[in-house]
Amino acid sequence: FVLDDLGYLKKCSRTAEPETVIAREGGYSSVSFSPSCLNVYLSDLATGVVDIYSGDFTNHKITWQPPKSSGGDTVKWKNIVWFGDSVLAIIYKFSVVLLDANERASKVLNFIWADGIMGAVADVDGIRLWGKTNIELIERVALPIENVLNIPAKTPASSLWVAEMKRRAPLDDTECSELEYYLTLKRLLQEESLDEAASMCASAAANIWSPDEQKRLLEAAYNGKSYLHAFSPPLESSDDFISNTCTSLRILNAVRETFIGIPLTLTQLQRLTLSGLIRRLALYGEFDVAEKLARKSGKELSNVLSSWAISRLQTDETETIENIIKKFASETDGAVMRPYAEVALAAVEAGRPKDAVRLLRLEGRIDRKAPLFVKLGDYRGALLAAAEFGDYELFIDTFKAARRKIELRQFADILAEFPERLSDRAFSMVSSYLRRANETESLLTLYSCMESYPNEAILKTRICLKDESVNLSEELNRLASMYSRGRKRVDIYGSHLRKAANTSKVAQFLEETLNLPVGSLSRLSSCDLIHVVIVNVRDDSNRRDLLSTVRDRLKIPGRQFLWTCMAAMKNLKDVRGLFFLVDNFNKGKSPVIPLERFVEVCIELKSVTAALQFCERITDSPEKARSLAKCNHIKEAMDLATGLRSKALIEEINGIASSSRR
Questions:
Q1: pLDDT digit string (tens) for 451-500?
Q2: Which of 120, 97, 116 is nearest to 41 (CA)?
Q3: CA-to-CA distance for 468 and 462, rounded, in angstroms?
């Protein structure tokens, strides 16, 4: 819907010409739908006229003619805001007009403000107006308040409230008012509406602003509940409702106080949540109230303490770091994480790096320490924290940041100072990153820097590089002289080196056999070499011979070899290749890999026909029945299970059938 140049409302679509929906003499200057598009208003700023239509424009509900000034001129509106789907608020300088589209009625509210109304915005349960010195909230009267305080309504809640007020009134005939009160309770109990009346009084208390009225309404609700519980077992939810209402009112009354000045309603508190309110109080600097709420609720205490400490560092140069550490230690327990890292960041921004370092030493969240140590230029602390945390991405980000400032030799010296466990982990992550980035020269430089520090990571790096300069016998002798644990450990590393050398020779053999570029396979693992054979050789005979040769030369166990081949066939979606594997490498009455696994792979590849062919080859009847059920051939599987007279198998097949239907 758009307004054309004449101010007429038109409906536009991609398939048809624009259709005029509403044409008024003089036209309109603005149009807006209610939040759920149930109603729409059109207005003309020049004349001040406002029309409200239904959302489909079939029903014209209200026409509002603007008021006239003392001079006879039309008073122009400042803003128009929808409140819900039925009420439209027209904002003038000193008044607000509320148009109810459903009841087709209007109400005028006047505001005697020196500077007038400057703006308006829709809130979750009303309209908020503001001037230079004033803020007002226009909200609907809550339904519980209408039911309780609207005496002519004659609802159970209003009857309970009237009886409570009469009982509390300073009358001469007190006994008569007490009797009338209990007769009212008895009548509501017989009508089974006492619980509803008491709950409505509690709801009204939650929506009213006066603490005195809140107290009276809660007493009425509590007395009604007490009388009800004397004749029927209490409901936990009923008692919890009054208790929760009291808790909410304590919070609302506390933040509504003048020295805080956050005029929240119950609806706004529920939308904001208690955690959001605590964070807002901390943001406003109301740390005492925020801390009490955080302790009472068990939420956001860490954020409150962090905000308090940051505020102290930013506003008070004499605040010592000892006071902050002492408060954190005394005000928190093991269940609350002490926010040293956040305060350390504030100390950095306040120009107190030494205090920041002290705080970071106490931080228990290791992942928060590394970035701040980088900011402080303490790369040793940053790398140590990242290595201790063990996250690859965090460590590499820290390494990149440190690399801009320090050389690889300095980095190697830092790693040498780490405990052996962290040194190995750090070197392994860095070498992995450099290999992925194809920075071979950097990796070799780092390796040469670490030459005097024997650890497993260095050896693994040489194996991964398949460094042709490595002399196997010399390397073993060097290791034997450097490791104090003896020959046994050296023999283990020697086997790794021999395996790496053997893999390198097989890679050269495949490069020559398959006519691949020299060096293209030099850094592949044994599993990767098997993948290369399967991808590049399609003839069954040649593929069988070459795979057998690779398997024998690499000395790969049969089960590992078959799993690797099966994974390669699955990645290629080569169902025919699966039959090739079974026929050539998985023969016999007890195959290395059960045929049921081949059935599952075929189902994943959505080849049910191939899966059924593998089912026919399965000799074990229970496994055959399970495989048929997985292929959705439930009848054949059930017949086979019934013939075996296995109740457990029948139940299992029923379970497979039900899961496949889902």
A1: 544 444 455 445 444 444 455 555 555 555 554 444 444 454 555 556 66
A2: 97
A3: 9
Instruction: Assign 662 to helix, strand or coil.
Output: coil
Angle at 661 between CA 658 and CA 662, to 5 degrees: 90
Which residue from 607, 606, 611, 645 is spatially nearest to 629, judged by alpha carbons?
611
Instruction: For 345-362, write each residue's pLDDT tens digit.
Output: 777 666 777 777 777 676
Q: Which is nearest to 364 in space by CA: 339, 330, 333?
A: 339
Q: CB of 166 within 8 A of CB of 173? A: no
Query: Residue 202 in 3-state DSSP?
Result: helix
Report the number of secondary-structure helices (H) and strands (E) in the chain. 31, 14
In three-state form (DSSP H/G/I as H, E/B as E, the rest C), the secondary structure along 51-100 is EEEECCCCCEEEEECCCECCCCCECCCCEEEEECCCEEEEECCCEEEEEE
Bridge pairing between strands 95-100 and 105-110: antiparallel
Output the CA–CA distances (angstroms, integers) from residue 323 to 288, 320, 327, 426, 626, in the order listed. Answer: 17, 6, 6, 36, 69
Q: Which two tokens stand for residue 525?
A: 């693992």
Distance CA 376, CA 393 (A): 20
Residues in contact with 117: Cβ distance below 8 Å, sequence separation at least 6, in sequence order? 78, 91, 92, 93, 94, 96, 111, 129, 130, 131
Residue 512 token pair: 């020559």
Q: How far is CA 385 from CA 124, 341, 380, 433, 455, in A?
A: 46, 13, 9, 18, 20
Q: For residue 10, what are the contacts with CB-CB under 8 A and spacing of at least 6?
A: 1, 2, 3, 4, 18, 19, 20, 21
pLDDT tens by residue, 266-309? 888 888 888 888 888 888 888 888 878 887 887 777 777 777 77
- Block residue for tokens 């520090």: 453
Residue of 213, 82, 52 lying closest to 148 (CA atoms): 213
Place of tokens 């400032």: 405
Structure tokens at 43: 């207005």
Q: Is the pLDDT of residue 371 over 70?
A: yes
55-69 burial code (b ≥16 CB/10 A, e <16): eeeeeebbebebeee
Rounded to whole angstroms, how far apart are CA atoms 594 and 610?
Answer: 15
